[in-house]
Amino acid sequence: MNRFLSVQSLFIALAAICTTFSQAQVATVPVKMTVTVSVPRDKRMPEIKREDVFVRRGRDRLKVTEWTPATGANAGMDLFILIDDASDPVLGSHLEDLRGFITSQPASTSVGVGYMRNATVQIAQNFTSDHDAAARAVRLPVGNVGAFGSPYLSVMDLMRRWPEHPNRRQIIMFSDGIDRARRGMGGRFLTTIPDVTSASELAQRTGTMIHSIYVPGRSRLDRNFFEANNGINNMAQLSDRSGGESFFLGFGSPVTIRPYLDQLNDIFGNQYILGFEATPARRAGLQFVNVSTEIPGVDLSAADAVWVPAASANQ
Fold this sequence. Notes:
Blueprint: H1 2-25, E1 29-38, E2 53-57, E3 60-62, E4 64-69, E5 77-84, H2 95-103, E6 109-117, E7 120-128, H3 131-136, H4 151-160, E8 168-175, H5 194-206, E9 208-214, H6 225-242, E10 246-247, H7 258-269, E11 271-278, E12 285-288, E13 290-293, E14 299-301, E15 305-308
Parallel strand pairs: 5-6, 5-8, 8-9, 9-10
Antiparallel strand pairs: 1-11, 1-14, 2-3, 2-13, 4-11, 6-7, 12-15
């Protein structure tokens, strides 16, 4: 009996040593992402500490190393206003509200303005801290998509051209979400546009939050129920996967966009920089994570995945 216990204890000790050695071999790398905190409108925002935030990858809980409010020295933000040139000119009735929104941004926010056309972005104003200049760059959409119109290819073009900067990255996209470029390639009746997935992955890789506001397109031929519904759903997917917010009210033009812009200001004012330790793979890539808290009534919004560098050769 005693011999059996001694052998059993030996195996337990060896298992513990192997586990410790194995854990020591698994090095982690620090990664960061932007998180939005929200509560119901009739509730007060509670104090949220680092230990209140949980990050999980599958069943594994990852170590949270940073939970910093995006205020003060950490308030820097790059905000790009991206308007689909295929939008109906009725959008013009909302441009004064949009200009007022731009000029009301804090000094820590740089604003850029551009128009989606031919699967690219025509820059009307590069990022600037001169908010009046950015507001003046806002114009009516021309109501034409060009020869190859895709809001998802356009937003990817913008993200690839984004200057390197530690600021938070935010896009507000005005569009009907219809990918007209796919029509000529047999994609008219696709329920999920492949470019939505590509744009989502690029947003997650670059840490870009994409917020979308639905505005109808110029042509009635482009606004049948199926395609309009698809456009809204695809924009909502893109926003959700990147940690952003999507705004729409049916298939018509919104009566006013001011409530949407007010909500976006609330979002920008309640963001945190989340840092945590991730386990790298042999190749760099996206890893799906879930960010949550157990504080009642508090919701955390973040991208579905984070970019994790490859493991170094020494690991």
